[in-house]
Automatic annotation (TrEMBL):
Its EC number is 3.4.-.-. InterPro entries: Peptidase_S8/S53_dom, Peptidase_S8/S53_dom_sf, Peptidase_S8_Ser-AS, S53_propep, Sedolisin_dom, Tripeptidyl-peptidase_I. Residues 184-195 have a biased composition (Polar residues). Residues 1-28 form the signal peptide. Gene3D superfamilies: Peptidase S8/S53 domain (3.40.50.200). Residues 184-204 are annotated as: Disordered. This is S53 family peptidase. One of its GO terms (molecular function) is hydrolase activity. Keywords: Calcium, Hydrolase, Metal-binding, Protease, Serine protease, Signal, Zymogen. Its cofactor is Ca(2+).
Length: 642
């Protein structure tokens, strides 16, 4: 799903148009400013289908800039997160943050007066002045924001939107951070998980599969239906792992960690849309079945909204049940890496950006967590600038309180296959979060014996065929590359990273994400209409982010508290990460799937999923690279922050 310029509530250009044909009078309208980047980004390819009625309804949200401005807040957040800074780790409580950075009551009153003076109504003011919700009609919005409205079609959607950039009176323009709602294009997010989508709702792994990487191969294990599997480019391959468990992942990544390094005393927030009704029982059963401990009383908590909305309705559906697998993976992966850490699940009431932003406000204002793991986002650089600014304000408040935000970088590689040109995904591309990319990871009882960047080509074996046939050069892969929205931050230029377009480089770090070498999870699913618990292998950078978040909880434990912006630490000293060069890894694995996703009654499907075989602009090599960043975390990352 593409992002497009967020419909805003910030333009007052009607008076400017009038002024072009009427001499200035003594009581002329006050000067106005164009809100930068406020026109819908899709206008160049959208098709205008007519004008809406002047009485057509408009709902919008005007986000207010933090007191002193976003740039000043960013500078302060960077300082409290940077070693040897005079304010290093001098974090604020939520109360102290709000006292210093909330928009003032006079600012709220001035913006409200501008909007109501144009005929809009103030429906609500966020308690800390983060935003003002307004309602009205097209006529009032046109007067308030100085831009005409039109009906459009674009990207398969029918929307109402402004015809150009928005403006605001000069006296309040600086107080407006962002606007949403005038453009009714839905801004939605999707989970970054990769699980097969069979005809049934549920899914089960087929066998053979390897308990440890390489333990079952085509030369020592027969296929269940007697199919003879040919060599792949002359080489015998292993069957894909059945799915790594918590003890396997912990042993691979945290070998050599200090005694008691388990996250005790630290809480990790997990953010997704909606909430699985069986999450705690599923996570407890999974842990005990795979050799770990269930949650202690109070170790797992949830913060849920009063109700959930936009469930399978509207032009872009959220599909609540589709988020349950994401939540399951996130909770079980964090618990696997930091078994004693608290986990607090924060549910967004829908998959829309405005609801995720409200969820981040809950997290920051509660200040109960040190790390926030997010395994979702939207594809490409076409993010609305207004949306990005609102998110950035949330990330910076978190940093000022010692909270670290971690995001998965997406599962479409460099996005060229999906979107036509190399792009990075948002929110991972924001410079004030840590973007976690993906690797294909070979784990044996000796630990990680091979890693490369996750970029997969797929080959299949047709019934009766004697060789593998290429299905697609690029099936999926970890996100990375260079943003066209955000300039390269200082921490990257200081580290010697050269961005070809001058944009923020991704990923920062990486962890296992390839579905072929993914994690085994346990979840209650619907199997032909009957709910039952079962396990399956899952991957995506949705796995990488919580794996890293769990390890970061252990670093926070060792450091005595939260760390703020992690990239200030990662780029200063990345010795805690294993450089991923791709050397010595296998060509790929053989994957066996039930044709119906459930059982052998429908037969079997055989495929080869390659490791780093796809042709994309992302590369793997020594040092930082655009596929794996600085590499994957090891015990060195668990040491106390300086």
């Amino acid at each position: 799903m593409r992002r497009t310029m967020m419909g805003g509530a910030l333009v007052a250009v009607a008076a400017v148009v009038a002024a072009l044909s009427v001499p200035m009078a003594a009581n002329a309208a006050p000067a106005e400013k164009t809100i930068p980047d406020s026109a819908p980004g899709w206008l160049s390819h959208g098709k205008k289908t007519g004008a809406p009625s002047a009485s057509a309804a408009v709902q919008a949200r005007v986000y207010l800039s933090p007191n002193g401005g976003l740039a000043a807040l960013a500078a302060a957040a960077t300082a409290v997160s940077t070693p040897r800074s005079g304010s290093y780790h001098h974090f604020l409580s939520p109360a102290a943050f709000h006292a210093r950075y909330d928009a003032t009551s006079s600012t709220v009153d001035a913006v409200s007066a501008w909007l109501t003076g144009a005929g809009m109504s103030v429906a609500a003011v966020e308690p800390h002045g983060r935003y003002i919700d307004i309602t009205g009609n097209v006529a009032a919005a046109t007067k308030a924001f100085g831009v005409s409205m039109a009906n459009y079609t674009h990207d398969g959607l029918s929307v109402q939107a402004p015809t150009g950039p928005l403006q605001a009176p000069d006296s309040v323009a600086g107080a407006v951070l962002a606007v949403s709602g005038l453009d009714t294009t839905p801004e939605t997010n999707v989970p970054h998980t990769q699980k097969p989508s069979p005809p049934s709702d549920g899914f089960r792994n087929a066998t053979p599969c390897s308990q440890w990487y390489g333990s079952e191969t085509q030369t020592n294990t027969p296929t269940p239906d007697g199919t003879t599997l040919p060599l792949f480019n002359g080489a015998a391959l292993a069957f894909a792992p059945c799915g790594y468990t918590g003890p396997q992942l912990r042993g691979a990544y945290e070998a050599g960690a200090a005694s008691g390094a388990n996250g005790r005393g630290v809480t990790v927030a997990i953010v997704d849309a909606y909430a699985s009704p069986t999450i705690e029982s599923d996570a407890n059963r999974y842990a005990t079945d795979t050799g770990d401990s269930a949650f202690a009383p109070g170790q797992f908590t949830q913060s849920l909204p009063g109700s959930f909305t936009r469930v399978n309705t509207g032009q872009r559906q959220c599909d609540a049940s589709g988020w349950y697998g994401e939540q399951t993976l996130d909770v079980e992966a964090v618990h696997a890496m930091a078994p004693a850490a608290g986990i607090r699940y924060y549910a967004s009431k829908s998959c829309y950006d405005t609801d995720f932003l409200d969820t981040f406000a809950r997290i920051n204002d509660e200040a109960k967590v040190s790390v926030v793991s997010n395994s979702w986002g939207d594809a490409g650089d076409n993010v609305r600038p207004s949306t990005a600014l609102a998110y950035e304000a949330a990330f910076l408040q978190g940093a000022m309180e010692g909270i670290s935000y971690v995001f998965s970088t997406g599962d479409n590689g460099d996005e060229a296959t999906a979107l036509g040109s190399p792009q990075t995904d948002f929110p991972a591309s924001d410079p004030y979060v840590t973007g976690v990319g993906g690797t294909s990871t070979e784990i044996t009882q000796a630990g990680v014996v091979g890693e490369t960047g996750w970029q997969t080509s797929k080959y299949s074996l047709a019934k009766g065929a004697s060789d593998w046939s290429l299905v697609t050069d690029f099936l999926y892969g970890g996100g990375g590359g260079y943003s066209s929205n955000f300039p390269e931050p200082t921490y990257q230029t200081d580290a010697g990273i050269v961005s070809p377009n001058g944009g923020r480089a991704l990923p920062d770090v990486s962890m296992d994400a390839d579905p072929t070498t993914g994690m085994l999870v346990g979840q209650t699913q619907s199997f032909t209409g009957t709910a039952a618990y079962d396990t399956y292998r899952i991957g995506g950078t949705s796995l990488a982010a919580p794996l890293f978040a769990g390890m970061t909880a252990i670093k926070a434990q060792a450091s005595g508290g939260g760390l703020g912006l992690l990239n200030q630490l990662i780029y200063k000293n990345h010795t805690g990460f294993q450089d991923v060069t791709g050397a010595g890894v296998d060509a790929g694995d053989i994957r066996v799937d039930f044709a119906n996703g459930l059982d052998a009654s429908g037969g079997y499907l055989y495929s080869v999923r390659t490791f780093n075989g796809a042709a994309t602009s992302l590369t793997v090599g020594p040092g930082w690279d655009s596929s794996t960043g600085w590499g994957s975390a090891r015990a060195g990352w668990l040491a106390p922050a300086p």
